[in-house]
Structure prediction request, 308 residues.
Amino acid sequence: MPVKTLIVIAGPTAIGKTSLSILLAQQFNCSILSADSRQFFKELNIGTAKPTAQEMQGVPHFFINSHSVTEDYNVGKYEADAIELLDKLFLKDDVVILVGGSGLYIDAVCKGFDDLPEADAVVRNKINTLYETDGIEGLQNLLKQLDETYYNQVDLQNPQRISRALEVCLTTGKAYSSLREGKTKQRNFNIIKIGLNTSREILYKRINNRVDAMMENGFLEEVKQLQQYKHLNSLQTVGYKELFDSLDGKTELNTAIDLIKQNTRRYAKRQLTWFRRDEEIKWFEPIELQSIFNYLKSEISNFKNSQC
Prediction:
């Protein structure tokens, strides 16, 4: 039986995961699956640093522009869709690449996501009302009260993940963290994980430069076109929410841009905290292209030899 391998490329935002994934996809002649929880949405482009058709260079990409911000799409649905897609891709390819900075979505593909209960309309309305009246701080405070363990792990600027945890807490009367079994599901493919990182000074400079480039490329205009959707969870994310506040007159534009940079740097730190817990990740500097390629070829060869 041919050996099938999923190459995972993880790391903080603006580190260069997208460009590396395209180079590797060209080397291995394979497809790319996005594990970026914002690039799913077809309405979000500049603010998510979504690769353009030109940047993709003809490499097949999946889970980019696959959904609308108006759709209810979560990590459980993503796991099911991604595994179904991988089964199809592995019928013709021996290698597929999974790339992104959303650790929860990467874990869902590699390890599986716990099947937790869905909340009823009453619970969801309660959480939505809290969010509307007290903002994300209200959600954060309730989560800290109900599940301090998960409060210390979750991206506290992500209302979708906080809301999901609260749904489980209020539905079951138990802490969300206590119900996450963390049992790894067996996959019918091998997995190689690599991570990209560099010095904090270089990373933060890359982040600041990216935000400036986004603004020059029309990010503010993109956000203006999305004002009718600003109440949706998918738009409560770094970059969009700061510019919505500016458009609403809550902050000056220059202040909003500085906040985007600051909050993106904080997000990068949380991403690294998440990924560093995974001992299966082999870390590289973004410039170590040949070392990365040699490592991947060696690991794939080892898989093949172990099958003999």
The two ends are 10 Å apart (CA to CA). DSSP finds 13 helices and six strands in the chain. The mean pLDDT is 92. The longest helix spans residues 121-146.
